[in-house]
Specification:
Low-confidence stretches: none
Radius of gyration: 20 Å
Shape: globular
Mean pLDDT: 97
Order of helices and strands: HEHEHEHEHEHEHHEHEHHEHHEH
Strand order of the largest sheet: 1-2-10-7-8-9
Largest sheet: 6 strands, mixed
Distance between the termini: 50 Å
Helix content: 25-40%
Strand content: 5-15%
Bound molecules: ligand AN7
Number of strands: 10
């Protein structure tokens, strides 16, 4: 019988902080495709560029890798409810895993600033949702305060179980390629994922599985780039709502990952994010949410600055599925709505419209 992927806890049981008494709450997360993107490699002048397509996880984002760990451990500790602050994807994932575990989820989201698909997921999985009059950073402060003072377990990435689960993506990259890439690129909000990949690579390096650790390149949106400015951003602003975060939870962890990997942080304009969002859809065939195009947009910016050596092998994590924030695809380069033309059911007319006749 063909092998069925069993979710990251069962697949990487020996490499995670779990034991036989840990209940395993899984939706089959992980095992996502690593897709070669020759069009992107050509654009940036690299030998190979691969996309780790995390939109293929059960709730459509990389958050599921960490959430299977966080919710399993919470249930193991007897938690009856989990809480998170979220720009959308964490809440979708927490709600789904809580539903699978048969416990309550509480999610705090910034009012009016989360994509419709993600809100819909949290509602679908019966989370208790509150829209907070504030930004993500305010939501996280609230979630921390509530988890410290009330019987509800925090599942944001300040919870180390989340980082543990997310490090498995680096293991998968190495297993698929047989080597570590020269550069690993990803979008950065709280920098939990950036830190988690580095942890995964470092563990494989220390175990002698890989001979080098990739340079970790993290990119933020220009209006929301505390790592670039070196200080928290009070009113973060970007169309990439998933990474609209001014005071990253994993700040120190990520700084050390950058230093150890000889990596860097950079930022890109919203217009560069949207350009790359379209390029990935049209030239690579992978539909991601705009925030998820931030890494590739940054890679292009660095390539244009001469920072991508010819012969480089690069992995770019695309973090969330395009359907989560689908309306961006229905706008053209100038921001005008795209509406398919209406036609009759006569073949000659349709052929003419299509330019076939
Ligand atoms: C698609 O859901 O923070 O740097 O609350 O949804 O690990 O925070 C989402 C973050 C990148 C940034 N891409 O990851 C949340 C949340 C997508 C995301 C990030 C997020 P981190």
């Amino acid at each position: 019988m063909a092998h069925q992927w069993r979710g990251v806890i069962r697949e990487y049981f020996d490499r995670l902080d779990v034991d036989a008494s840990t209940p395993i709450i899984t939706l089959g997360e992980g095992g996502t495709p690593l897709v070669e993107a020759p069009a992107l490699a050509k654009l940036v002048g690299a030998e190979e560029v691969w996309l780790k397509v995390e939109g293929m996880n059960p709730t459509g984002s990389f958050k599921d890798r960490g959430m299977t760990m966080a919710v399993s451990k919470a249930v193991g500790h007897g938690a009856k409810a989990v809480i998170c602050a979220s720009t959308g994807n964490t809440s979708a994932s927490a709600a789904a895993y809580a539903a699978a575990a048969g416990i309550q989820s509480v999610v705090l989201v910034p009012e009016g600033k989360i994509a419709l698909g993600k809100l819909s997921q949290a509602v679908a999985h019966k989370a208790q949702i509150l829209q907070v009059q504030g930004n993500f950073d305010d939501c996280l402060d609230l979630a921390r305060a509530l988890s410290e003072n009330y019987p509800v377990h925090l599942v944001n990435s300040v919870n180390p179980d989340r980082i543990e689960g997310q490090k498995t993506a680096a293991f998968e990259v190495i297993e698929r390629l047989g080597y570590a890439p020269d550069i690993h690129v990803l979008p950065v909000g709280n920098a939990g994922n950036y830190s988690a990949y580095f942890k995964g690579y470092l563990e494989d390096f220390n175990a002698g599985v890989i001979k080098t650790v990739p340079k970790m390149w993290g990119f933020q949106a220009d209006g929301s780039a505390p790592f670039v400015y070196g200080t928290p951003v009070k009113n973060p602003d970007t169309i990439a709502t998933a990474i609209r975060i001014g005071n990253p939870a994993s700040y120190e962890l990520a700084l050390s990952a950058r230093e150890c990997s000889l990596g860097e942080f950079g930022s890109v304009l919203d217009s560069e994010i949207l350009w790359m969002h379209r390029f990935l859809s049209q030239e690579v065939g992978v539909f991601v949410e705009p925030s998820s195009a931030t890494g590739a947009a940054g890679l292009l910016k660095n390539a244009r600055a001469g920072k991508v050596p010819a012969g480089s092998k690069i992995v770019v994590t695309v973090t969330g599925h395009g359907l989560k924030d689908a309306l961006w695809a229905l706008k053209d380069e100038n921001g005008n709505e795209i509406q398919p033309q209406s036609v009759s059911n006569r073949a000659e007319e349709v052929a003419e419209r299509l330019g076939l006749a």
